[in-house]
Write a structure and sequence with these properties.
rod-shaped, 97 residues, single chain, mainly alpha, 0% strand
Length: 97
Amino acid sequence: MATKKTVVATTQDIPSQIETLRADIAMLSETIKTQAKATVAAKSATAKQMTAKQAEAAKERYSEISSQAETSIKENPFTSIAIAIGAGIVLGAITRR
């Protein structure tokens, strides 16, 4: 059974314990905030790298396709003109409606 001295001592300790808990919570909040910032920075860097790689791959692919188109036009100029005329007729028919 608790004595009066124990109850009084425990009651007097409550404010200091609450203050200790507040300090601990503040410290934990700061730690979580720091970890979240580090995680966001790492994910952001990874996303930037992936975007740069994809942009470079797209540029290379565009360059390849452009080069292939130029080569095809130079090798088959009449076929290229016929395709262009056909595409123009089809687009003209579609836009007329």
